[in-house]
Write a structure and sequence with these properties.
The structure is a homodimer. Chain A has 2 domains: about 260 residues, L-amino peptidase D-ALA esterase/amidase, CATH 3.60.70; about 120 residues, ArgJ beta chain, C-terminal domain (Ubiquitin-like (UB roll)), CATH 3.10.20. The first copy, chain A, is built from 11 helices and 16 strands. In chain A, the strands form 3 sheets. In chain A, strands 9-16-11-15-12-13-14 form a 7-stranded mixed beta sheet, sandwiched between helices. The first copy, chain A, has a 5-stranded mixed beta sheet with strand order 3-10-8-7-6, sandwiched between helices. In chain A, strands 1-2-4-5 form a 4-stranded mixed beta sheet, with helices on both faces. The longest helix of chain A is centred in the middle third of the chain and has 21 residues. Chain A is globular. The first copy, chain A, starts with 20 loop residues before the first strand and ends with a helix. The relative contact order of chain A is 0.14.
Chain lengths: ~400, ~400
């Protein structure tokens, strides 16, 4: 099945290279296809690493080993396999990951736990060790390639390659951050089938990198949803090679810490939005802005209840300003809410305020807004100061076609 | 929009009349249609009542008043409005409900709180008081009609009328139970846009009727889901007229209590299944049987995580035995689970056992099972004795067509 490029796709941006991060790709042929499906990124000695992983209780061996090895704070290489998630494959699957780690570690003369591996694709089929071995061998001797090549090689059902970058001034010097990501279905907070990698030439202590990544994750990757489904393999890793020459950021108080964290947040938000833009069958990009909640976390849960509601998502697909379905989704969230203080709007226009339809509500401009590609849903709960924005896409025939009409 | 009858529809059964429960219908014309949309059921003096309601925090006035008045334990009448949910309509909406209660109470010379009202349909438009007044007047003077007439009159987007019955021997006498229900979308546990009414000629103390209804609800209405969306109006009420001549059931120890509770459970399960069979766009009826969970409640949550997963539901629509998606849904449920003890099967055949695909797994008979109309998904978590069965339907183009392509 050849998927059409999402109508919400963005062109791959011009991204700077990051000294100390060298990208190579190869064909492991994990599936019966003729494309690069193994990505190898070599990292300079002393590279710091941080990571956030799926909360699935059925996580893959890659995720289990990644969680363990993040604790060391150091990375020398990343290997990403596309076409096989190697999840639910027991000890066979774990052996395949350990083989890749050992093979790369032997090449780099580093500890195996400094090699990070991700896999994405079909569940339940152990990653074939021979293909992995040959693929890694081919990648080790391949010529360096671009970020776009890597973003393409890590993709599975994605319809376009996804990258984002930002920079920050640290210690008077410019540091660069680039990110690539894959994911389009099985996307929910706690990150779904989403693999994201961020590389920076800043010099960052692992603890601070981890803290900054977790903070960015909370308001970006954890605030997107396509279908509410969470994958067994989700991973976002951040690598800091420290090659920029800027002073090391040790903690929140180091000069440049705020600027770096802001740039990291920026890259994460861009990447998260790209995943929503490639949501299976998506025709509209939806921002759900919740204010007046009991707390920020409560606002996020209400936002996700709306963003995951099939009835809200189909209404928007049908360009129907059906605020009654939004009321329903607020009500089912189970978070503090008061029907008679609730306000709901679209595109900056309130349809209902304080529990009642707005007098003389003119649906015209709202209907016009709903025809656009970017839909803004505002919900004010009127009971506190908590706020959050959640991003999602609409639910269309395309989603059914991709997931039901064709076999995976 | 004329909806086609669900392929999973069942014919309306032959249902006995219940002495002391008289059904009448009328045309209130809450929408621009020419059909009965107001149902009035008069109940004998001394009728006991019990009820379970939506947990939505944005519930309608009907639900608020129903919750309050259930405490009295006595009912003389039920009025159901179809075409307007009267939800999110503030004090205007509440006044309309109170007007109906007062009007019927005046006719019956009974307290207003013995009159129960439900409304279903569009959200955000106050129930028009003049139409309600004329509709109730017309119903009060109409000739009695059948359960099927009532089941049709309470429907909104339903594609077939739904009824179920059972009987039990209490005190050597046969007591009858009949139920009618409406609902097809916005269906989730905590009951969604579902209105269900059960009538029996048994003589039941209100406290026991409430306890028996709550028990039945927990394993029936609370175990179905169509789209995970919960309505603002869900209501199930049970009325016992006590006209059968069988001895009164005061509590769990009364003779016939077990038999009555079993029959009530039977009617509730039948009614719940009918709602799933009319799930918007449904082409397959799916039972998800979860065993080996940490507790029954944990099993129910895992079952609902599977039954609400768009990826599982689209896979089944596509007749794809995609057990990897079931693993995903187990993992995201957040309930105790161990990847390496998890087993998954379809139609009585295990596809994966103890965290690994079954050796020499033959997809043939499973593929055959998936082609049928009744799909059985079995999940054994292998960690405890908790069990639950959850029922749902598949997610098809029909759901999108009903909810996106046409305005509600």
């Amino acid at each position: 099945m050849e998927l059409e490029t999402s109508p919400l796709a963005l062109p791959f941006p011009d991204m700077p290279s990051i000294e100390g991060a060298t990208v190579r790709i190869a064909r492991a042929r994990y599936k019966d296809w003729d494309r690069a499906d193994l990505t190898y990124i070599e990292l300079a000695e002393g590279t710091s690493v941080a990571g956030v992983f799926t909360k699935s209780l059925c996580a893959s061996s890659e995720v289990e080993l990644g969680r363990e090895n993040i604790a060391h704070g150091t990375a020398r290489a990343l290997v990403v396999n596309a076409g096989n998630a190697n999840a639910f494959t027991g000890y066979h699957g774990r052996e395949a990951v350990e083989q890749i780690m050992a093979q790369v570690a032997s090449h780099l003369q580093c500890p195996a736990e400094h090699v990070f591996v991700s896999s994405t694709g079909v569940i339940g089929v152990p990653l074939p060790k021979d293909k992995a071995r040959e693929g890694v061998n081919a990648a080790l001797s391949a010529s360096p390639c671009t970020w776009e090549d890597a973003a393409t090689a890590i993709s599975t059902t994605d319809t376009f390659a996804k990258g984002a970058h930002a920079s920050a001034i640290v210690d008077g010097k410019t540091v660069n951050l680039v990110g690539i990501i894959k994911g389009s279905g099985m996307i929910a907070p706690d990150m779904a089938t989403m693999l994201g990698y961020i590389f920076t030439d800043a010099d960052i202590a692992p603890q601070f990198l981890q803290a900054a990544l977790e903070t960015a994750n909370a308001s970006t990757f954890s605030c997107i949803t396509v279908d509410g489904d969470t994958s067994t393999s989700d991973t976002v890793l951040a690598f800091a090679t420290g090659t920029s020459g800027a002073a090391r950021i040790e903690n929140h108080d180091s000069p440049g810490a705020d600027a770096f964290a802001a740039a990291l947040n920026d890259v994460c938000r861009q990447l998260a939005h790209l995943v929503v833009r490639d949501g299976e069958g998506a025709s509209k990009f939806i921002a759900v802005r919740v204010t007046g909640a009991a707390s920020d976390e409560s606002a996020r849960k209400v936002g996700l209840s709306i963003a995951n509601s099939p009835l809200v998502k189909t209404a928007i697909a049908g360009e129907d300003a059906n605020w009654g379905r939004v009321v329903m989704a607020v009500g089912k969230a189970g978070e503090p809410a008061d029907r008679d203080k609730l306000s709901i709007g679209f595109g900056g226009i309130w349809a209902a305020r304080n529990g009642l339809p707005v007098d003389n509500y003119d649906e015209g401009p709202v209907a016009e807004h709903l025809k656009g590609e970017h839909i803004d849903v505002a919900v004010d709960l009127g009971i506190g100061n908590g706020r959050a924005t959640v991003w999602t896409c609409d639910l269309t025939h395309g989603y059914i076609a991709i997931n039901a009409d064709y076999r995976s």
